[in-house]
């Protein structure tokens, strides 16, 4: 097997996923830009940014709630580029709901994307990693280090992601495959902008005032860590959940 490494990234039309596509492209990784049909963001923007960075990308529609869809995503990249080295399980949704009123459907719908979608992405990618590789899943401070009212389903899913990568790190270590999680704090993306809508249009800036550095993070600041974990430079890092939060949870 030869040539540039290949990555699959779910939810790559916007936010952290889009920034990750560009970061990986800058490092010579060919990127599968997973795009979700319901997403208002144009994946062509990510593809253009990838090309501007000197990289190669391929847009593939994927719904992480479907095993078949995620499997086809991985297979499409392998049939185009004959290899798959990196899986970034980034797609996620955020819904607010008090625990006493949450319905079974709401609970299952969120876990289907944020936890089972991560499992499906990791599984689809791992099947094709012939010469080592890396899985990186996106957790959250809500799942790793911080209690968040009215988000029990989200916190449960994001905590599950950490358990998943720890298990994969042990199971796949002998095959030269690493698995890690990222624990972002508050990052400026479409998802976080929606979440703080109740604070008004300047909500994210005001929320940033509670962070020791006085600002929220940028997608790129998370993507850089994902790109490092996906690279050979992280060859002895596995089973970790790395916090990227501007010291929010250490203050
Ligand atoms: P985002 O909304 O820009 O990205 C989420 C992506 O997931 C979108 O591209 C969306 O289309 C995709 N998606 C949603 N449902 C999908 C489905 N069923 N199948 C495939 N794709 C689907 O927001 P983001 O902040 O960049 O989110 C990326 C990840 O980071 C998410 O897992 C999110 O929970 C996590 N995260 C974000 C923050 C933050 O502050 N922004 C903090 C902690 C964790």
UniProtKB/TrEMBL annotation:
The keyword Oxidoreductase applies. The keyword Oxidoreductase applies. Keywords: Cell wall, Oxidoreductase, Secreted. One of its GO terms (molecular function) is 3-oxoacyl-[acyl-carrier-protein] reductase (NADPH) activity. Gene3D superfamilies: NAD(P)-binding Rossmann-like Domain. It is found in: Secreted, Cell wall. InterPro entries: NAD(P)-bd_dom_sf, Sc_DH/Rdtase_CS, SDR, SDR_fam. It catalyses: a (3R)-hydroxyacyl-[ACP] + NADP(+) = a 3-oxoacyl-[ACP] + NADPH + H(+). It comes from the Bacteria. One of its GO terms (biological process) is monocarboxylic acid metabolic process. Pfam families: adh_short_C2. Its main location: secreted. PANTHER family: 3-OXOACYL-(ACYL-CARRIER-PROTEIN) REDUCTASE, 3-OXOACYL-[ACYL-CARRIER-PROTEIN] REDUCTASE FABG. Belongs to the short-chain dehydrogenases/reductases (SDR) family. This is 3-oxoacyl-[acyl-carrier-protein] reductase MabA. It comes from Gordonia soli NBRC 108243.
